[in-house]
């Protein structure tokens, strides 16, 4: 983890806060309204973004023990994640090599060393190996080694698991992350635990994601819940398409108390971990991470967004992760209260607005939407989304090789 880089971002936020300034984008950017509503573009995004780029498929603490597994379906691709005996994660195409039946039902989790396909009874180990063909004498001889579950590229770092849903992908996941995961390590998620999770329905995936990328809307849309005390300002930091946004301020709340720390009076080595990770950390194209405190513990909401079945639908899994599990009944209730509050904010404020916005945009009457100089996050996100949707496979490799080189300099 580069504490130096975190400190330098924090110093910049403190300086802007003290001067009552923020960093602006150069200009207002116009995005065609059809970007949100065009069904053909939506299909292309599913194919070229969600089925071609690494996705953060689970926090490590969702699969903490050898044998833990989770089956999910992402943009039509059945995915099986397992924690293998050596504690590494396997990401497999969840389709039996006999005739393609999913070997584990999508949406389920559990702990198992083997999976038996429910159609004809072939059995696979949780490292993907085919161990048993039912009635082998009747079936005839097969090369078991050639009939393992197919493996997707997978990468675990900073307590998060990425997989690429393209069996032939040549894009190294580390290139794609542009060094960003080294900063995400500052949260310490690799030793945290999963408190709870839920899945919410939302509007078009980009409409939904826009809401994670600006603070401009906080004092307006969220005025009755938490936004009244927030400024509309954010400074942005970028690593390739991944970005962090944070309020320019010289203050930070002391962990677990109402006391405010004046960071401008603290030496670099005194800056606390929470102050260094303030704000919202997004991972392109679909993750947002924000810190909270509740139940006597540091916690974070990891929101994982996927496109739904049609252009106007998405779904978001909210993982509430905590540094330690709350122990007393009171602490459990308080953590649950924090988690429930975040459901209300996202469901009833962000996504309810996103739905109304999407319906209105579908009228086709508005040709463009605007992202102001203070909404640099949305500007950058839409630029990357368009660039990666339309890039060829070769261009994709070049783009991220160059980003990684730049990040290393
Ligand atoms: S499809 Fe799995 S055993 Fe036949
Ligand atoms: Fe919001």
Explain what you see.
With 409 residues, this protein is of the alpha+beta class. It folds into two domains: 3-53 and 171-408, Naphthalene 1,2-dioxygenase Alpha Subunit, Chain A, domain 1; 57-157, Rieske Iron-sulfur Protein (3-layer Sandwich). The protein is 31% helix and 27% strand. The chain is built from twelve helices and 21 strands. Helix 3 packs across helix 11. It starts with a helix and ends with a helix.
Summarize the structure.
This protein has about 400 residues and is α+β, with helices and mostly antiparallel strands. It has helices at about 5-20, 35, 40-50, 135-140, 175, 180-185, 205-210, 220, 275, 330-360, 375-390, 395-409, and strands at about 30, 55-60, 70-75, 75-85, 90-95, 110, 115, 125, 130, 155, 160-165, 195-200, 235-240, 240-245, 250-255, 260, 280-285, 285-295, 295-305, 315-320, 370.
- Provide the CATH topology of the largest domain: Naphthalene 1,2-dioxygenase Alpha Subunit, Chain A, domain 1
The whole-number mean of residue pLDDT values reads 96
Count of alpha/pi helices:
12
Architecture of the largest domain in CATH? Alpha-Beta Complex
Major sheet: size, sense and barrel closure? 7 strands, antiparallel
Number of strands: 21
CATH class of the largest domain: Alpha Beta
Strand content: 25-35%
> How many angstroms separate the termini?
16 Å
Specify the helix fraction band.
25-40%
The parts where pLDDT drops under 50 for at least 5 residues are: none
Which radius of gyration do the C-alpha atoms yield?
22 Å
Structural domain tally: 2
Find the CATH superfamily of the largest domain: Naphthalene 1,2-dioxygenase Alpha Subunit, Chain A, domain 1
Assembly level: single chain
Strand order of the largest sheet: 12-20-19-18-17-14-13
Helix/strand-derived category reads alpha+beta
**Per the principal axes of the C-alpha atoms, what is the gross shape?**
globular
Bound molecules: FE2/S2 (inorganic) cluster, fe (ii) ion
């Amino acid at each position: 983890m580069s504490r130096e880089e975190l400190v330098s971002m924090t110093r910049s936020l403190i300086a802007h806060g003290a001067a009552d300034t923020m960093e602006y984008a150069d200009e207002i950017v116009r995005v065609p309204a059809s970007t949100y509503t065009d069904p053909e573009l939506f299909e292309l995004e599913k194919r070229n973004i969600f089925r071609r780029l690494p996705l953060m498929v689970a926090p490590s603490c969702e699969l903490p023990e050898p044998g833990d597994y989770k089956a999910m379906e992402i943009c039509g691709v059945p995915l099986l994640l397992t924690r293998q005996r050596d504690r590494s994660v396997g990401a497999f195409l969840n389709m039996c090599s006999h005739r393609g039946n999913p070997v584990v039902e999508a949406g389920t989790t559990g702990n198992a060393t083997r999976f038996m396909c429910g159609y004809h009874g072939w059995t696979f180990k949780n490292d993907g190996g085919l161990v048993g063909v039912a009635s082998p004498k009747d079936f005839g001889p097969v090369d078991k080694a050639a009939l393992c579950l197919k493996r997707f590229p997978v990468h675990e770092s900073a307590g998060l698991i990425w997989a690429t849903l393209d069996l032939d992908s040549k894009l190294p996941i580390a290139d794609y992350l542009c060094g960003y995961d080294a900063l995400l390590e500052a949260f310490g998620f690799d030793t945290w635990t999963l408190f709870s999770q839920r899945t919410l329905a939302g509007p078009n995936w980009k409409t939904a994601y826009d809401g994670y990328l600006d603070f401009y809307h906080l004092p307006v849309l969220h005025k009755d819940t938490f936004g009244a005390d927030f400024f509309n300002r954010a400074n942005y930091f970028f690593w390739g398409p991944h970005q962090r946004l944070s309020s320019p301020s010289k203050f930070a709340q002391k962990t677990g108390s109402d006391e405010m720390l004046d960071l401008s009076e603290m030496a670099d080595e005194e800056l606390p971990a929470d102050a260094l990770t303030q704000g919202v950390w997004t991972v392109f194209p679909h993750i947002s991470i924000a810190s909270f405190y509740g139940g006597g513990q540091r916690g974070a909401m990891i929101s994982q967004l996927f496109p739904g079945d049609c252009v106007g639908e998405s779904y978001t899994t909210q993982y509430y992760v905590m540094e330690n599990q709350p122990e007393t009944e009171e602490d459990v209730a308080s953590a649950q209260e924090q988690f429930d509050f975040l459901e209300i904010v996202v469901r009833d404020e962000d996504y309810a607005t996103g739905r109304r916005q999407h319906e209105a945009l579908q009228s086709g009457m508005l040709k463009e939407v605007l992202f102001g100089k203070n909404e640099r996050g949305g500007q950058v996100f839409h630029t990357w989304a368009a660039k990666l949707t339309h890039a060829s496979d070769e261009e994709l490799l070049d783009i991220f090789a160059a980003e990684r080189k730049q990040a290393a300099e």
